[in-house]
Specification:
globular; about 45% helix; 8-stranded parallel barrel; about 350 residues
């Protein structure tokens, strides 16, 4: 079992302790550090900034939102980060959800699986640098051909017809930079197993992973799959709250679960809600969502059952958390991405490393 330090995305501003925590994680033997983005801070800039003072930990994004950048822009950033870090970069990405994609980026969320497949195929062309990038895709045609693919300006719907196929000026440090995918639904998890090098589960609970195992097995069995179970990485974010009072510890995790199950998505289309429902907490998920969408956030948070918190997090006294080590080491996870203060990351290192 490896450990990663998850820095997440910023709230109102950056955590002033981030640099010290990154250095402490590296000193403790953590394998990786991870940054994220939603609709505020981006994932790449903090990772470069904080990672510049490290020498051993891998530097990953968990996750970059695909709609924020074209495939070649993401590939350019990955090549740049990989050079600057001496080959330590991991490109983690995901489709996000329709509320962010359509509400923040002003793009259609349609056909996320097909878009993901095209996105990764284009990036791998860029990394390989075997010739000019050419891709006849429905979503990302390169070069642009007027009248198909992405819309051209209304004043010139056919484009200039001057697009030239290009290959990157920079020679990638590695021709096959690892790509991890964030995925929650079975179809997307299977796609990750087929075309990616690793996977980020979310709201992950070891005792409720059987349908993930089935989805991964389906992806590994597809023709041309890049990996198998032995070579595929599973980097699972896990919340840790240390307190002699289990309920007090759980109360530190409840707002996070309530936010994602109740508020990060619409009624009828919330991937995080679906994860919890598949775990057997559908009635509880409905209650959390109903309260959250009604503006009763405190009530929604209070309605998150302790059983659900303990299924996907480690909460309570250190002795209790230590006793739960085996349920995580026996799981699909190859890396646990831990977030928190210095005490939390030290405790995780003592238990797992």
């Amino acid at each position: 079992m490896k450990l990663g330090f998850g820095m997440g995305y910023w709230g109102a501003g950056p955590n002033p302790d981030s640099q010290e925590l990154v250095l402490e994680a590296e000193r403790l033997g953590y394998d990786s550090i991870w940054t994220a983005e939603a609709y505020g801070s981006d994932a790449l800039t903090p990772l470069a900034w904080y990672g510049s003072r490290t020498s051993k930990v891998r530097l990953g994004t968990s996750i970059i939102q695909m709609s924020a950048r074209t495939p070649v822009a993401t590939a350019m950033a990955a090549i740049t980060m990989d050079h600057l870090s001496g080959g330590r970069f991991i490109l983690g990405l995901g489709v996000s959800g329709p509320q962010v994609v359509e509400g923040w980026y002003g793009q259609s969320f349609a056909k996320p699986l097909a878009r993901t497949r095209e996105y990764l195929a284009i990036m791998r062309q860029v990394f390989a640098r075997q010739g000019p990038v050419v891709f006849e895709g429905e979503h990302y045609p390169i070069p642009y051909v007027g009248g198909s693919g992405l819309p051209a300006p209304a004043t010139n719907p056919e484009g200039e017809a001057l697009g030239k196929a290009l290959k990157p000026i920079v020679h990638p440090l590695r021709a096959d930079i690892p790509i991890f995918m964030g995925a929650e639904g079975p179809k997307n998890v299977a796609l990750a197993a087929e075309i990616a090098d690793g996977w980020f589960p979310f709201l992950y609970a070891p005792e409720h992973e059987e349908y993930y195992r089935e989805a991964l097995a389906e992806g590994f069995a597809r023709p041309g799959a890049r990996r198998n179970q032995d070579s595929f990485e599973v980097a699972a974010p896990v919340a840790i709250a240390i307190d002699d009072d289990i309920e007090a510890a759980a109360n530190r995790i409840r707002p996070f679960i309530a936010l994602y199950v109740g508020g990060m998505g619409a009624r009828g289309q919330n991937f995080h809600f679906d994860v919890v429902a598949r775990m057997g907490f559908e009635a509880e998920a409905h209650k959390i969502q109903d309260l959250y969408l009604a503006g009763e956030k405190a009530e929604a948070t209070a309605s998150v059952p302790t059983e659900l918190v303990e299924a996907m997090a480690m909460v309570g006294p250190v002795a209790k958390i230590r006793e739960e080590k085996d349920r995580w080491t026996r799981s699909l996870a190859t890396t646990l991405i831990v977030s928190g203060d210095a005490t939390t990351i030290r405790t995780a290192a003592e238990i797992f490393l």
